[in-house]
């Protein structure tokens, strides 16, 4: 199809559509007319070196000449084009794997080949946001069985870079989110790496929460490292804490997560495939998974947690990973801060063994580090927790943490946001309920995680005796607008923290 | 939130994104910075007169000044803005009905209120394409029960204009697609209106097929009429055949159909709600529904057809419509033409009682018109078909058809496309199989329905004795590129028509 009649000249427009690949052509462009293209038509754009698929937006003004073509920033970057470069436009051949997505919509069970074809097309950018959404929705609501989740996981592992560490044991941990402030990962890595185990940790950014581990770590150091840079850090320090996205581990996952974020959903199958594929692609052999359970956490009942535990351990086994799931208390936020910088402050206090370090964060980190030490077989059963405690209290974990941050680029101190509002108790009583979802929502409205220093500082804990007028929590924001927006929500919801 | 700090000036950009409402703001716009907006953030844009919700695309070039805002054509039209007009930008309050969509994704049953809130938000343009896709996918694959489909149908009826005809009996018909060339509607309307019944027919454009009834009728006359214009035509002629979209009947349907088209799916629940809501909103009281059954038709087995029949009659009853479902033969295309103009030619031949009029199209139209006459109670049971036949053979139906077209604006003769390719039999034998899906795909690749005169003319019928070299079918296209694209597909698939 690459004949003279479908040649156009690239013109830079500068439109950021996030990940979506959009192509802009004039309504009077001869190709649009001869080929019958209209807005939203999916078409293929090629250079001599490569090609991409993009959705058409039709220009009805003079933004483009008739023989010019524009691309969204994501599309231009992927195609690597320069102004005035010649591009070739052609009809999109049918994306065969969309047939599997339709089959899944109609409740059919898909096999490994189907998932592999779907994931391959997603990684190549051949799916529109509409296609991605249909795939995610069709797989949500427990519509994938264990075979299918295993197939999806395997397909996601091989879809991107796979790291190898030439180590018999490579440990990792993961927490099934939903618990604001639960930032144990940097602590566990510091402890376990200080022990001498290899723990190349890749973390995600927030999906629907006010902060992901990568967001929090970004307060301290650079988290966007290439696979080569990660290797160097891990070879030097035994551990790292980086964002998994740029490392091109399970790259389909980041595209799927963007849509899940837009929909504010988190499906079990995608969740398991996401977590385990990242672990396996990162070259891990032994993984501890923390599932906090609580009425307002992501997993609301012990029964659901046990099912997830069962599924994760079974699928872990099927793909050759030693998985241990630990079910923990998820009734209230962990630590005091919710939001990247506020959580970073909690982490520092724990590492420095400060008197006012949040005890719950310390204890959870020691528990998980202990489990990981035991799962690795390098310490005797029953001695993991004590070993972890010694590494923390001796300052070895703190030293290791600073060393890891510096190896990743630099170590920076967290700072607080300039705007704040203190929320005080309207009456005396006992602090009975903290609504995790509402607290998380409030932190997001205040700007977290995009505004790194925004979020919520909890000044009281569950079960505490509260005096009228006592400080319950503080809202931090980087702009007045965001502070007002958070306050609007707070004023409308008076049951974020309940004192009875 | 409408203070001085979120005021911007509108600048015309001229970007057609089809239905999607997109807002363009500069990355250095003070609002983006202060509010933490990034690409794909959903935000509210207001004038003093009204407001819309749109997805943000961030301009990284000089297309916009920092205090300017651009809108996609659909968004600008809805907001009715003029260049340099002052616009107000604010955070989007949570779209509450998306909570129901999430519940549906997680397999919960929704009630009338939930569906009504969802449809209301969809009609107001509050859903992004991602939201619409999630809703459609969550409802597909038989995930709605009869109560839910009834609720959705009722919600869709009241979401737009409802027509009233001051007639005790208002008849209508509908065919559950999947059978190329099955263009009985214009014939049934002509016959039934010639009899004296009121039949204000609103039809859809093609969803995934090479032509919808509205596309075919557009070859003859204007099909984009306002409710007032429709009333006038029906008062004068007793019938009309118009596109249902502009009439604002069940307006949510058109938005949902665009996404279904992009996904190439058609879910049972949406299908029933779409058909029955359009009928009820159009003020119909008695409706005959044609379900063609065949291996390559939309409904593939009699069992599936009977289930659909049962569901449609039950839900029809629940919303106060007299519905009769007729299950018909769907093993091969009806008539000879597939594509708007080619089907229009078939219709004319039948109306004019020409010797080479396609018999199957004639017989199907008489059957359905007869059923409709009987369902109305205006002719005795068993005499419908004969009555219909007399109206057609006498030329009364033809006269009525011309009169309806002229009342809708004009009557134009169909013309054939300039480019064609004749496909001939490679060997002698019996024509055993016509693959409806592949024939439809071929017609679409040749340009139908956008290219009105493009499509396929079948020159042979199922069961016919074929000589080697005999003409099997002809591909028509309006451009050489489209003809080549169709030929490429044909050359790759040699089982479109099978001679054994």
Structure explained in plain terms:
- Chains A, B: One of its GO terms (molecular function) is 1,4-alpha-oligoglucan phosphorylase activity.
- Chains A, B: Its EC number is 2.4.2.4.
- Chains A, B: InterPro entries: Glycosyl_Trfase_fam3 (IPR000312), Glycosyl_Trfase_fam3_N_dom (IPR017459), Glycosyl_Trfase_fam3_N_dom_sf (IPR036320), Nuc_phospho_transferase (IPR035902), PYNP-like_C_sf (IPR036566), PYNP_C (IPR013102), Pyrmidine_PPase_CS (IPR017872), Thym_Pase_Put (IPR028579).
- 2 copies of one chain form a homodimer.
- Chain A is of the alpha/beta class and 500 residues long.
- Chain A folds into 4 domains: 88 residues, Beta Barrel (Barwin-like endoglucanases); 61 residues, Transferase, Pyrimidine Nucleoside Phosphorylase, Chain C (Transferase, Pyrimidine Nucleoside Phosphorylase, Chain A, domain 3), CATH 1.20.970; 204 residues, Nucleoside phosphorylase/phosphoribosyltransferase catalytic domain (Pyrimidine Nucleoside Phosphorylase, Chain A, domain 2); 81 residues, Pyrimidine nucleoside phosphorylase-like, C-terminal domain (Aldehyde Oxidoreductase, domain 3, Alpha-Beta Complex).
- Helices cover 41% and strands 19% of the residues of chain A.
- The first copy, chain A, is built from 18 helices and 19 strands.
- In chain A, helix 4 packs across helix 6 and helix 5 packs across helix 10.
- Chain A is globular.
- In chain A, 59% of the residues are buried.
- At the A-B interface, strand 2, strand 5, helix 3, helix 5 and helix 10 of A face strand 2, helix 1, strand 5, helix 3 and helix 5 of B.
